[in-house]
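User: Hi! I have a protein structure encoded as tokens and I'd like to know what sequence might fold into it. I'm fairly new to this, so please keep things simple.
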């Protein structure tokens, strides 16, 4: 351990991510196997939920469960549920009535591959499956903590709905047509906190809850994850600018090209970078009271989000 931050320099984040992502992928695959529904619905759901996402939210659930002393296996149902909500939101986000994207993760988006009706319903069904999965998995094991599962379902539902992702998306869409909203920093922050950070936060909180974390621990996990979620977006905006100028405007970042509000646009690139640094420091500070070894994955994850180059 380096004695400044109490963090192992030998910790291998890539290995930790890929090992846990593999476990999550297998569990998601199982949850999406044997669905009793028309093949079009089952296929479009599987295509969208198993289609090569990085599985950051589920790995975060597992890391937060382990942070508070829980076993990784206890976090698997909520980890899968967080990814299912995320997948549902991406399917709907790509639809013609939203962002109208033909590509997702380098492949045809769900509506491009299966048609609009199927995509709308695949999103609906993935969202419903998220909650069914947690409820079902938590009621079928001896010694399962139903109280924790109920708290996790409430947390995830709050993050997906009117207090989270859906609200963020409505605000984002409104800002596209309303110049005054799109130019205000508070408006931009509202969009990212709700649209992106809230689900990252819920994934982390659910992990800590099912891991048996106490109220204080869960709150520190919440603040850590909210900051990392926002950090992800600030860094994304900064990278969009660097990528754009590197490529001399050849293929400008989508948001920049569309003239959307971004952190560098509203505060300048240097201040946006400084803000990212602040968010990283604040996120890491929330981990200070935890066991250094258990917190190592989360420290490395926050730094990875901050320092990634694409
Ligand atoms: C169905 C819950 C629900 C909501 C509908 C369409 C909509 C309302 C919300 C859109 C939410 C959205 C697209 C947020 C952006 C999230 C984001 C940062 C995506 C990129 O996340 P990564 O990098 O993606 O984790 P991968 O591909 O790795 O999964």
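Assistant: Happy to help. Inverse folding works backwards from shape to sequence: for each of the 310 positions I chose a residue that suits the local structure. Here it is:
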């Amino acid at each position: 351990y380096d004695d400044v931050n109490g963090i192992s320099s030998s910790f291998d984040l890539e290995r930790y991510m890929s090992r846990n992502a593999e476990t999550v992928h297998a569990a998601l695959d199982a949850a999406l196997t044997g669905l009793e529904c028309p093949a079009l619905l089952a296929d479009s759901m599987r295509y969208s939920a198993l289609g090569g996402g990085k599985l950051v939210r589920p790995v975060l659930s597992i890391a937060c469960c382990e942070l508070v002393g829980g076993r990784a296996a206890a976090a698997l149902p909520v980890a899968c549920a967080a990814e299912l909500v995320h997948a549902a939101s991406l399917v709907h986000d790509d639809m013609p009535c939203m962002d109208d994207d033909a590509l997702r993760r380098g492949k045809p988006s769900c509506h491009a591959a299966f048609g609009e009706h199927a995509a709308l319903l695949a999103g609906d069904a993935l969202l419903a499956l998220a909650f069914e999965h947690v409820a079902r998995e938590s009621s079928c094991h001896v010694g399962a903590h139903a109280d924790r599962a109920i708290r996790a379902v409430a947390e995830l539902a709050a993050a997906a709905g009117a207090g989270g992702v859906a609200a963020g998306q409505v605000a984002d869409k409104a800002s596209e047509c309303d110049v005054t909203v799109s130019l205000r920093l508070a408006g931009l922050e509202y969009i990212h906190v709700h649209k992106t950070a809230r689900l990252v936060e819920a994934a982390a909180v659910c992990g800590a809850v099912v891991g048996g974390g106490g109220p204080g621990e869960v709150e520190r996990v919440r603040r850590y994850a909210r900051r990392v979620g926002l950090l992800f977006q600030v860094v994304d905006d900064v990278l969009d600018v660097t990528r754009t100028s590197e490529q001399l405007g050849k293929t400008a970042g989508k948001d920049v090209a569309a003239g959307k509000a971004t952190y560098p646009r509203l505060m300048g690139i240097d201040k946006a970078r400084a803000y990212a640094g602040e968010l990283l420091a604040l996120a890491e500070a929330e981990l200070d009271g935890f066991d250094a070894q258990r917190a190592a994955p989360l420290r490395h994850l926050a730094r990875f989000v901050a320092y990634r180059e694409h």
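A useful reference point when you look it over: Residues 53-54, 56, 85, 88-90, 92-93, 98, 105, 123, 127, 160, 165-166, 169, 195-196 surround geranylgeranyl diphosphate (CB under 6 Å). Feel free to ask if any position seems puzzling.
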